[in-house]
Amino acid sequence: MPGPASGAPPRPQEEPKRAGSENLLVCLDPSPFSIPLIRATQRIADAQQAKWFAMYVETPSHDRLPRENQEQVAQALYLAAKLGAQAIKVSGFRIGDEILAFARENQVSKIFVGKPYARRWRRFLGLSLVDHLIWNCGPIDIFVISGEGEEALPVPPGPKPRLRLKEYLVAAGGVGVCTGLAFILFPYLALTNLAMIYLLTVVIISSFLARGPALFSSLFSVAAFAFFFVPAYYSFAVANTEYSITLLVMLLVSLLVSGLTARIRHQARVARTQERQTAALFGMSQNLTAMNSLEELLQIAVEQITRIFDCRVTMLMPGREDKLGIRAGQPFVDDDVREGMVAKWVFKHGHLAGAGTGTLSAVKGIYLPLIASQHVIGVLRLETHQPERILAADSLRLLEALGSQVGLAIERENLSRQAQAARLQIDAEQMRNTLLSSVSHDLRTPLTVIAGSASSLLEGEKNLDADTKHELAQSIYEEARRLDRLVYNLLEMSRLQSGEVKLNKEWNVLEEVIGSALTQLDPQLHDHPVSIALPADLPLVQVDALLMERVIINLLENSMKYTPSGTPLKISGRVQDKEIFMTVADRGPGLPVGQEERIFEKFYQVAPGSARGAGLGLTICRSIIEAHGGRIRAANRPEGGAVFSFTIPLAEGAPILDKHLPEMQKNHRDEADHPAD
Amino acid sequence: MKPIILLIEDDPRIRRFLRASLVTQGYELIEAGTGREGLALAASRVPEVVLLDLGLPDMEGLEVIKQLRSWSEVPIIILSARGQERDKVANLDAGADDYLTKPFGMGELLARIRVALRRAAPAEEDKQEAFYSLGPIRVDVERRLVFRGPEEVHLTPIEYKLLSVLLKHRGKVVTHRQLLKEVWGPSYVEQNPYLRIFILNLRRKLEDDPARPQYLLTEPGVGYRLREA
Prior knowledge:
The structure holds two protein chains of two kinds. By secondary structure, chain A is α/β, with parallel strands linked by helices. Chain A is about 50% helix and about 15% strand. Chain B is α/β, with parallel strands linked by helices. In chain B, the strands form three sheets. In chain B, strands 2-1-3-4-5 form a five-stranded parallel beta sheet, sandwiched between helices.
């Protein structure tokens, strides 16, 4: 049946009214009259600007209702929610008490109920809901609404009488067996003890069978007892008044027992179901909180639901342009365009639909909306051959609970991702600010020197002696170099941070990398004697030579900046646990205690504003070393000065040092014989 | 006659400072702002050296080199920004002779130009020198002997070949690929690690402090350069 929920043309969802002082409550029952009842209540609520509730009390008998009626309840609740009510479903035994308790808790002033349809004898006994409400409502007004004059409704077929013939037979048989036993024991036992045997039978029967057969068994056993064992025998006539009291008490006790037993069984069943649901929900929530990506989360949710309901599960979520697409779970054959349409409808309306439900049931899948706090964020599709197994009240409730848990988990994940993005943005902002303040200072100092020296040269062309001119030109050159390094470090930093740098790893000789770094630093190194201690057989390493050179340059520059001129620097390296362990040590004042980690932070300077650099050199070192899978740290030497150490993992298959390659030698000889020039 | 240098560079400020310095140094400088203009000038004026900037507005530096190389052997010195090592190598392998990284000092530029001019001079090209000397290092080409100070240094044949290739290009950068090709042959051009090992050994035999080489210099990410005298 195409189209939205029966008799419920979609209306724009309205916020529950909060302006009015009144709270209204409409009581629903599993009949088609609930819908006109809801409509009527809505009109009144709207007119009075009142907040209203729609409530259904699920009694043990709810499970015995035919599917159509159960679906009617769901439809009614959904409609009420859509029309602005707060839809509530509670379980309980006495509908009237539950309603009144809720009404008192929520300051409800008016209760709307449908025209009573209770059977005449109940009405006569004052057992109808309306009577109960009216007698016990206190200050609350009760309105009885008749369904007449409302729009025509598709009235589903009435409740089918469900004769549990087999159970009645079992009950009768049980009483029969009991009667046989009583015959055997009759000579030995007093009459009251025989009655006890019958009561025991009733208890046993009613603890296994439904309420009807249980009642039947109690009546039947009293009748059998009266007929066979109460004088006058083989007749229902009672010889003694005392016996009639015995019979009456027996009847009442057995009726009570069968009723109580049925209730206990219901409670036990509810408890079992709740336990199962709680376990499933707990498992789900535990699994969902452990996830750290949306994909993982969806995957786990689908697996979990698949396991609980034993069916094919698919998670549909809107992708680009809000088009629903499969995000996790089993793909389904969507050659039936209706599947997609139903999914879309469910996504739009936030209401269960599909196979086995009362809405858009001509498809194979059951579609459940995944509702987060604000809106529908996805659709869960379940496909099975027995949709009614999933749509049974208990499992549907579990499914809905799981669905809302998944929905909230997804939303939480989305929110945390947004928060993460916001944090990154703030980080970037902060970095930009620090960068600007740090760089503007560090740029300005050399620029001042350059501009000043150059203008001195221009102005005093004639007055300056050759030495001064040379000195000025020299400082222009040096400051320009400094600026160049600063700009390079900044660019390198942003490249490294953005992950743009692809390591160009090759087998390299560390001695050469260090040598190249020293050559580049040569003009600055005259104040600091550098000694190098490397074993001659240090193996080749797989590194990006340019980046590794940058590490050495930055470490040396850093040491030079913070140590007095003339103090020595020492570079050493050795193999240690499948790594190369390199150190750059100085004899300077050492690091401030406790700052050994912080110095690797971006823009961190031991003495801020000292114009010694932008505080990027060590950060770059750390990025490069970590990209190579090594570690870098700084410490103070016990004998004074600081030591920076880093590791480079040794890779397998390094070309071997000091061994000439035969084929190359051979090739060389060939070439030597025929020199190619 | 003054040697003619063609400068292909789009930034007028860099042109200005190069003009000032190079003219003072006794070169005649002709300037082009685009690759096309530069190629036209290279054909009409026949310069002795070309200085080529890699960031031209109209064409890739590599394209200029290829077109120029299709009909001219003029030495080309690339002016590049830092961090373009791969470009540099590609350009050098495509036929450029040397490179300078911006910012560069005039001393470096003049040295590069001197080396390029010497290579371009055909008279000197033919003349095989019998002796080379680099500080304490002397190479007797005819007898294939190498001395460090008064002592003879024993080089393996391949080390000698390596040294002689570097000597042939002395003062000029030689890429890893060029060295491998000239020393070992075309099928070894990817064997950078072996080249590094041989260079290390050569340094250990020739340099005072192999970790701080004075003659056999590393050009990071590009290749090696033997210091010119």
